[in-house]
C-alpha cells in the first residue's frame, strides 16, 4: 500500500515563508459544495462517503468560552506535536534514547532538518489550509476551494507525503477533485481535519460528510477517509467532554461507531510477516480502535510493537489515541512519548497533542510550547477563534 509519509520525498523549504494558500481563481458560492448526482454516485461506489449516521459528537451545547479554549488547544496542539516530533520523524526509537530531555523542547534543525526551533511541517500547513478554506466558504467544506488551496500550498510544502504530492499534481494537471485522490491509506488526510471538528462539532452529520470530502481530495481510500472522520469527530467530542470522567472504553466504542459511517473493508497490517504475533488477517480501523482500552496498561514499547506508529493510518490514529489515553492526566508526557517513539513522530504527536488541547484547552501544554517560538502561533490562535465562532 502506498503510504503518505515514511517514503516521502522531503521538499521542505528552510525559510519560514508564509504559505500562500489563497485560491487565485474565482470566488466560491455555497452551491458549489453541493455534489452532483454523478459525483455522489462515483464517490459512493468507491466507499468514500458516509453511510448511516454517527453517534452525536456533542450531546449538549458547549459554552462559548469552552469552545474557544478547546479550539485554541486543538490548533496549537496540532502544531506543537508537529514541531516537537519533526526532528524525530523517520527515526528508530532506539536512536532517540539518551535524548529524552532534549526532546522536551523545540529544537532547531540542521541541514535536512533546517529551520529555527518551533518550525512546523505539512501537518500544520495542511491544517491551516483546511481552516482557511472553512472560513472562506461559510463553515462548510467546498472541495473546489480546498483543492485549490492544496495546489497553492504545495510549492511551500514541508515534509510532504507522496500521496498528497501525487494528488495535488493530478489537480494541477486539470483532474477534478473527486478523481485526483490516490488510493492510499496514509495519514495525510486525518492529520489536517481538526478545524472541521472545531467548526462543525455541534452537528455530527455535516461533520462526518465534510471530513470525508476534505480527505478524498488526496486520499481516495475508505480507511483514510474513515480516519479523517474519526479525528474530526474526536476533536469535536473532546470540546464538550469532562476530563475527570472520560471513559476510554465507552469513548473508543463511540469513536469506532463514528468511524464506521465509512464502509472501510479493512487491510492487513503492514509488515505483518516480520512482526511477532501478526497474521495476514484484514483489520478495520474501527476494530483496531476498539482494541485500544485493553492496551492502556501496557508499557509504551509493548503497546507500540502491537499498534506500530508509522504513516499507515491503521497505525497512526490508534498510536495517537493510545498516547492520549495512557497519559490522560499528563499531556506533556503523552506528547513527548509519542515523539520519542520515532517513525511518523510528528504526525502521531500532532494528533495526540490535538486531543490533549481539545480536552484541556491551551493550559494542557507547558508555556514554553505555546509561546512565540511556535511557528504561526498567532495565526493558529486567530484561526481557532474564528473557527470556534462558526
Ligand atoms: Mg509532517
Structure report:
The chain is mainly alpha-helical and 390 residues long. The chain has a single domain (51-384), classed as Orthogonal Bundle (ADP-ribosylglycohydrolase fold), CATH 1.10.4080.10. Helices cover 50% and strands 1% of the residues. A two-stranded antiparallel ribbon has the order 1-2. Helix 2 runs antiparallel to helix 3 (122-136). It is globular and about 55 Å long. Residues 1-15 and 24-32 have low confidence and may be disordered. It binds magnesium ion (MG). Magnesium ion (MG) is lined by residues 82, 121-123, 159, 346-347.
What key attributes describe this structure?
two-stranded antiparallel sheet, mainly alpha, binds magnesium ion, ADP-ribosylglycohydrolase fold, 2 strands, 390 residues
Structure in a nutshell:
Helices cover about 50% and strands about 0% of the residues. It is mainly alpha-helical and about 400 residues long. The protein has a single domain, classed as Orthogonal Bundle (ADP-ribosylglycohydrolase fold), CATH 1.10.4080.10.
Count of discrete alpha- or pi-helical segments spanning 4 or more residues = 17
CATH class: Mainly Alpha
Order of helices and strands: HHHHHHHHHHEEHHHHHHH
Known CATH architecture: Orthogonal Bundle
Number of strands: 2
Strand order of the largest sheet: 1-2
Query: What is the molecular shape?
Result: globular
Helix content: 40-55%
Rg over C-alpha atoms, rounded to the nearest angstrom: 19 Å
**CATH level 4 superfamily:** ADP-ribosylation/Crystallin J1
For the terminal residues, how far apart are their CA atoms? Answer: 37 Å
Bound molecules: magnesium ion
Amino acid at each position: 500500500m502506498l503510504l503518505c509519509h515514511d517514503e516521502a520525498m522531503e521538499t521542505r523549504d528552510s525559510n519560514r515563508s508564509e504559505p500562500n494558500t489563497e485560491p487565485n481563481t474565482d470566488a466560491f458560492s455555497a452551491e458549489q459544495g453541493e455534489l452532483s448526482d454523478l459525483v455522489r454516485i462515483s464517490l459512493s461506489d468507491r466507499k468514500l462517503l458516509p453511510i448511516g449516521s454517527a453517534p452525536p459528537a456533542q450531546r449538549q451545547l458547549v459554552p462559548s468560552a469552552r469552545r474557544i479554549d478547546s479550539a485554541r488547544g486543538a490548533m496549537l496542539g496540532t502544531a506543537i506535536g508537529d514541531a516537537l516530533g519533526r526532528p524525530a520523524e523517520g527515526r528508530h526509537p532506539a536512536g532517540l534514547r539518551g535524548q529524552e530531555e532534549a526532546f522536551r523542547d523545540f529544537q532547531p534543525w540542521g541541514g535536512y532538518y533546517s529551520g529555527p526551533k518551533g518550525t512546523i511541517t505539512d501537518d500544520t500547513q495542511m491544517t491551516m489550509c483546511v481552516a482557511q478554506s472553512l472560513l472562506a466558504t461559510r463553515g462548510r467544506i467546498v472541495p473546489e476551494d480546498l483543492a485549490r488551496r492544496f495546489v497553492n500550498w504545495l510549492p511551500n510544502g514541508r515534509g510532504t507525503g507522496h500521496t498528497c504530492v501525487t494528488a495535488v499534481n493530478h489537480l494541477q494537471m486539470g483532474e477534478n477533485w473527486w478523481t485526483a485522490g490516490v488510493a492510499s491509506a496514509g495519514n495525510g488526510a486525518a492529520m489536517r481535519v481538526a478545524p472541521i471538528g472545531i467548526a462543525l462539532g455541534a452537528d455530527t452529520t455535516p461533520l462526518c460528510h465534510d471530513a470525508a470530502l476534505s480527505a478524498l481530495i488526496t486520499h481516495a481510500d475508505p480507511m483514510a477517509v474513515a480516519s479523517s472522520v474519526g479525528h474530526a469527530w474526536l476533536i469535536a467530542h473532546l470540546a464538550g467532554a469532562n476530563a475527570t470522567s472520560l471513559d476510554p472504553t465507552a469513548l473508543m466504542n463511540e469513536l469506532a461507531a463514528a468511524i464506521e459511517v465509512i464502509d472501510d473493508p479493512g487491510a492487513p497490517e503492514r509488515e505483518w510477516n516480520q512482526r511477532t504475533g501478526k497474521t495476514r488477517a484484514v483489520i478495520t480501523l474501527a476494530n483496531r480502535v476498539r482494541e485500544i482500552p485493553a492496551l492502556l496498561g501496557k508499557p509504551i514499547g509493548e503497546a507500540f510493537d502491537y499498534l506500530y506508529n508509522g504513516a499507515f493510518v491503521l497505525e497512526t490514529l490508534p498510536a495517537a489515541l493510545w498516547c492520549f489515553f495512557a497519559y490522560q492526566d499528563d499531556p506533556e508526557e503523552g506528547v513527548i512519548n509519542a515523539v520519542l517513539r520515532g517513525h511518523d513522530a510528528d504526525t502521531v504527536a500532532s494528533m495526540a497533542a490535538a486531543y490533549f488541547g481539545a480536552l484541556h484547552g491551551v493550559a494542557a501544554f507547558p508555556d514554553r510550547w505555546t509561546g512565540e517560538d511556535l511557528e504561526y502561533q498567532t495565526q493558529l490562535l486567530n484561526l481557532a477563534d474564528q473557527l470556534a465562532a462558526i
